[in-house]
Amino acid sequence: MDTTTDDDEPTPVQLVATCHVEDCPQCGVPITGPYYATPGTTPPLYQAACGGCGTPITDLVPAAE
Ligand SMILES: [Zn+2]
């Protein structure tokens, strides 16, 4: 019922994350998924961790429509 907050729920953005750790089984494999920006970051900062090696992924690009 609270209509004073217009950005209460963050909107996920479809991004393609690619791991570049050579020993990782998912190295070089682009993985598309929804990501949420870290609250309070401008420009929006997105964080992703590789499912294969757990390394934070910095190669994040917007997914194609
Ligand atoms: Zn990895």
Low-confidence region ranges: none
How many helices in DSSP terms?
0
Q: Characterize the overall form.
A: elongated
Order of helices and strands: EEE
Proportion of residues in helical segments: under 10%
What ligands does this structure carry?
zinc ion
Gyration radius (Cα, Å) is 14 Å
Major sheet: arrangement of strands: 2-1-3
Quick check: average pLDDT?
Answer: 88
Biggest sheet details: 3 strands, antiparallel
The separation of the N and C termini measures: 34 Å
Task: Tell me the strand percentage band.
Answer: 15-25%
Strand elements, count:
3
Strand-pairing-aware structural class: mainly beta
Describe this structure in words.
The chain is built from no helices and 3 strands. It is mainly beta and 65 residues long. It has a domain at 12-44. The protein has a 3-stranded antiparallel beta sheet with strand order 2-1-3, with no helix packed on it. The protein is elongated. The N and C termini lie far apart (34 Å). The site of zinc ion has 8 residues, from loops. Residues 19, 21, 24, 26, 50, 52-53, 55 line the site of zinc ion.
Search tags:
single chain; 65 residues; mainly beta; 3 strands; binds zinc ion
Compose a concise summary of this entry:
With 65 residues, the protein is mainly β.
Task: Record the SSE blueprint.
Layout: E1 13-18, E2 30-35, E3 60-62
The structure holds zinc ion.
Zinc ion (ZN) binds at residues 19, 21, 24, 26, 50, 52-53, 55.
